[in-house]
User: Fold these one by one.
Assistant:
Number 1:
Amino acid sequence: MKYIKYLIFCVFALTSLSGQAEDLYKKWSTPRGTSWGFLVRTGYAIGGTSPIPLPPEVRSIGTYSPEGGWTLSADFFNMFGKRFGIMTGVHFFMEGMNAGATVKNYKMGIQMGEDYLEGVFTGTDETKTFMSGFTVPLLATFRVSPRWNINIGPYVSYLLHRDFEGSVYDGYLRVGNPTGEKVEISRDNPATYNFDGDMRRVLWGVEFGADWKVTQHFTLFGSFDWGMNSVFNREFQTIDFPMYPLYATFGVAYLY
Amino acid sequence: MKKFSVLLLSLCTGFFQSCISEEPLNSECDVEFCYVHLDNPNTYFYSVADTAKRVPSAVNVIKFYVKESVRPEQLTRVRLSFDVTPGAVVSPSLDRTFDFSQGPVDFTVFSEDNKWSRLYRVAFEPLRFESDFSFETSEKEPKGRYNIWYEQNDNKAQYIWTTGNPGFALSRSSAKPEEYPTIPLEKGLSGRGVKLETRKTGIFGMSVKMPIAAGNLFIGTFDALKATTPETMKATSFGFPFSEKPLRFTGYYKFKPGDVCIDRYSKPIPGMVDAPDAYAVLYRNVDEQGNPVMLYGDDVLTNPNIVALARVPSFKVTGVGEEDAWEYFDIPFEYKQEINPNTLKNFGYSLTVVYTSSIEGALFRGAEGSTLLIDESKVIVE
């Protein structure tokens, strides 16, 4: 923590000491010279939905690949002074992941109409999750140098499309609890689950981002949305732990 | 951009890998195999192979079938060993002998993480059953989900019968006992009988390509372990040791086929009308090398160790209402080989009897609603 403070101080110090500083800040401010501006962003989204920390039932991550992954955003910002401002906007996103893990004594349940099969599973669990919707962040933006901005703040997301499904195989289920009947589940006949309906519609979290001006109008950016609530609603008991969406976006923006 | 993605991907995966916690201790506490150690096993057992028992996951009473000549006093100092889940602890400890002369002895197995335990009962019993089946005696299984059948001989219950009900329970947890494939028939020919009806297995059954469950009743055991895998035939094993020579297989039935036969992909099979099956098989239960022989779903009618077979060749469609008449079958056993009388006396042959409401039920082909009622069935012996 101390190290980071020192780093930020150095960055500010270096940029303030420069004699050309005022000109550089003016040169790299908004194209029309106003304190406010619009950014239209498009980027590649990558990340995953995961428990934090990884529970001991997860023994290894076998496979991971992102699913979909695109954002299109419109942001409005206003600078109060040279260094500090606020930014908000509407971000449309499509993001998801495919992940395979080896699990041990992993509590799971399969709902099949009125029938329910539950227990603890040991073996391979493959999950595919995908979400699309809108995020509205409210960020404080810090202009740490003429061309660099750091953005931090909370966000709220509303999901239009929610998908969470998977299958278990190459292992066995102990029905009810670890002393229950042992039923092998093979690769040829995997047991599948689908928890779409148990996902929340509204998520919130904290966003961290960085913008770098390449030219007057073009900016490269990276941001990370750290989900603070589980993608599943409170009543959902089948998975024992909360699953948080953690997705990063990298892309370009056009500054008006 | 691609290189960057790959770098990011490996960073992410690396990050998650480093978050993997230590291997948790085992929660399971099963006895997987149980062995009896005796100085002269042949005094106690008909076959040395009987001193080792594989214990299916749903079983907690481990029965060793001993010779009828064995007296309780001979069982006062028995040494046992278990193969248990790695890390599990057995109490009382097995490094002493146990006294089985007063009856069974109980053991508790504690899991490595100490959060779970299972109680096992080890018993030594003679196995003898009369092959005169009236199906009067049945009871609910311990959790009350479905019925199980047993034979009553000399005030002792012999649990020789098994059904596909435990497998059905996995896919249809909400089913009531009377919705299962094998249920008691209150109005049998004489007293109670058995009703075997082919049922749909619901969404889970369909998803593992086992959309129907035939009603069945057979002498043998069921282990759900492989039930949903391609080796599903290994879930059913057939036969118990039998010391009499079968001559004829008889019984009374009523039958009605279901409306539409489907295959394992739930597609209707045009032109197929469902039919039941009933047969009895006598087989040699130890091979030339002394290894135990067991018949499974895939070779119960074809195993080379089969000595004699009686199978009902065809069934009439009688209707299954109370007013419909019972039909009788009487089939002589066809012998493929001579029986060795000494081997027979020493329980070297096993007998199984099988009834099912859908003849291709083991291949998951049949019609929902096919119903076979059975009562007063016998294997007539010499």
Number 2:
Amino acid sequence: MTPEARWKVSLSNGETLYEEKGNFKSSKEERFSPWKRLILYIEELNENSEKPIEITSIGIYTDDGRTFNLPSGGRVPKFHAFFTAKKPRAFNMFKASSSGISMRRGANREEYNFIVAEAIYDIGRLQMWVEINEGKNCWTLFVPENGENSV
Amino acid sequence: MADWTWVLQGGPTTITTTDALQFAGGSFNGAITVGEYQDSMHVDQNDEGLTDSSSGSGNNVKYVSTTQGLWTTTTDAITNLTTGEATLKVTFTHGTNVSTSAGKFYAHQTTTGDVPTNVTFWAYEADGTGTWTTAESSSDVLSLDDQTTSTDTHDFYVAVSASPVTIGSKDFTVYAEVTYQ
């Protein structure tokens, strides 16, 4: 099966949660998407917690073992640069899809599907775009505060 | 997984992955006079010379001014265009219930990604508000309405109108994109 790129997050309570695993599987029977269910889960945790529960890191993984990570509030940085880099104040995820039709007969339709992880800073958002199908292509963007391309 | 369906309304005719959307004069393959806007819309099938549009054409909404269009036989405020009268129904579907936002609709030159060469292109989302918008590149777009209800199907109804600046056929691509959660 073609590996798909999916999100994974770590929470400040120590949990690590994955799209398409546990309570965050895709299902038409579910009212909301796995990501929206994660947000609701975090809200529910915060109703019962003295300390705020929040996302401390976000990444994108594939079932064949690849991972793509954004800067995090990580506790075990592997290099000095990771330790000294400014930590994001929040994180977000969305997916993007596009489709194009041609005015020229016979041209194949263009369609693209990406998963986007965002690390949010005061001055803007660092976005990591990974192609959902096979997770082979990845781009990073920086979107200044109040710029486009953010949800 | 995400999927898209494009339909030329009026037939209706589904535009398959190798079909083309055709802006034409009064009939299939008919030329549009330079400086004028199309009088008919068609699906140009990937079989030579065939059109799949019922009765030879689909819905046509012709640009008149930024606030007006001509469809059926009447020039009217473009805000009066109903979803059923729009040229295109563009449907985004997904295997789970999702909401969409930051939707965009635009055209650009197929080979270069630039503004379509020698074509003026307008688009309008049939939502009862706004005006025709030039939508000629990924930075000059028609913004599609957010659809915040989580569902597995999201429909967007868009009128399109194009005018050649020079004679000859024009090769450009029309795009729809959304972000979703």
